[in-house]
Amino acid sequence: MNAIPIEGRPLRLVSERLLLRDLRPEDWPAVHDLRGDPAVAGPMGLAPEGEEESREWLERAIRHNRLLPRQAFNLAIILRETGVAVGWIGMSRAGEGRDADGVYELSFALLRDYWGKGIMTEAARVLLSFAFERLEAKRVVADCLPQNVASARVLEKVGMGYEGPAGACLRYGLDDEGWRHDDAAL
């Protein structure tokens, strides 16, 4: 299904200000800063994590990145100018079965000091482009808690439309036709 083979290769995506690359063990301090900060974890519906929990999450994310065929893309968000990891963005195949074929789910978190600078919008656009153009995704969805207004705004800025409630969350989505239409307008 991939337009360009990506199996077994580390993923690196570049934009004007950012490098998105597979998570590595040395990303643990930034991962823990994300997952341990109540201001970041809370809007994601998580309790702040301790060091051991953050290490375990990072190990699982790296392990999932290595599964073949690749089902998940857990990426560090790196500022190109400084080389500093400032967040995480991830995408994985959504569910199982025929209805989930070609559907991916987007998630993300950004260190508090970098909020409001357009970084997550830029990172999400890069990952959506990868999903639709290289993975030939049919659809990308994302869920966020109703109180997470900033994440909802990021999803709207990248062209994802509100679709309704999904459990305790709000569901946003974008299909490949919508992406091509938005991409042509840029």
How does this model look, in words?
The chain has an eight-stranded mixed beta sheet, sandwiched between helices. It is of the alpha+beta class. The chain has helices spanning 28-36, 38-41, 51-66, 119-134, 149-157, 176-185, and strands spanning 12-14, 18-22, 72-79, 85-93, 103-110, 139-144, 161-166, 169-175. It is built from six helices and eight strands.
Question: What does this entry show, briefly?
Answer:
Helix content is 34%, strand content 28%.
Number of helices: 6
Beta-strand share of residues: 25-35%
Tell me the radius of gyration.
16 Å
Oligomer: single chain
Can you summarize the main beta sheet?
8 strands, mixed
Along the chain, the helix and strand elements come as EEHHHEEEHEHEEH
The number of E-state strands comes to 8
pLDDT averaged residue by residue: 91
Query: What structural class do helix, strand and pairing data support?
Result: alpha+beta
- End-to-end distance, in Å? 26 Å
Helix percent reads: 25-40%
Shape: globular
How do the strands of the widest beta sheet line up side by side? Answer: 1-2-3-4-5-6-8-7
Give the low-confidence spans: 1-5
